[in-house]
Amino acid sequence: MQARPQLREILLNHTLWLVTLSYAAYGYFQYLFFYWLGYYFKEVLGIPAPQARWANTWIMLTMGVGMAVGGPLTDLASHRWGVVRGRRTVVMVGMGLGAVLGLAGVGASSIVANLPSLGLDDHVFLVTSICIALSMASVGMCEGVFWTTSTDIGRGAGGTSGAFMNTGGNIGGLIAPVLTPFVADKVKASYGEGAGWQVAIGLACVVSAVGGLIWLWIVPPTGDTTSDENGQVPAPP
């Protein structure tokens, strides 16, 4: 039976700090859309309010689906590749895809204009909504990995380590709603409102990608001293 770690030991755990930093990037990306997606649809893209609200609702529901799918997917990946590689893969793919699809969403008008053969000229908002929905679902897939890893790090004090990580996530979530319009306004002065919001959302996509890359240096505890560096238990001879 493992001894409960002391608070100081938890706070000095470099892996927990890396997980928290990544979760702050996760929170930054999510909270930007929580606070500003409706405004972006209505005021920047000029979408009628009922249509914008409907799209916003479905995008948030899609993120919830991503969270639900992410749990079993993480278990499957961990079983197949080990705890370390499995969790790392889920977060890096999820946050990386979230970044790419988010960029595709804010750049949908340019993508559609450059691909006339797709016949989507009259469906730019639909393309935007689908890309952002898939982006949020991809990022949402990572939620379970963060919480499982943070509580694994804390062992007998998993509530403390989880709260520490969640505080970092909320700090990222606090920064996003403030920094996003600031960046948008700065760029807007030179290039127009549309470009300003594209840059501001693009910045969040970069933050998401960096948050995923941090997992290259994160080694979740496996809870089994017989496992290898990937968290897999070798087969008996």
User: How many β strands by DSSP?
Assistant: 0
CATH superfamily caption: MFS general substrate transporter like domains
**Major β-sheet annotation:** none
Give the structural class: mainly alpha
Tally of DSSP helical segments: 9
CATH top level assignment: Mainly Alpha
Give the mean pLDDT. Answer: 90
What count of domains describes the coordinates?
1
Uncertain regions spanning at least 5 consecutive residues? 225-237
What overall geometry do the principal axes of the alpha carbons give? globular
For the record, the CATH architecture stands as Up-down Bundle
Radius of gyration: 20 Å
What distance separates the N and C termini?
Answer: 27 Å
Share of β-strand residues: under 5%
The ordered H/E elements are HHHHHHHHH
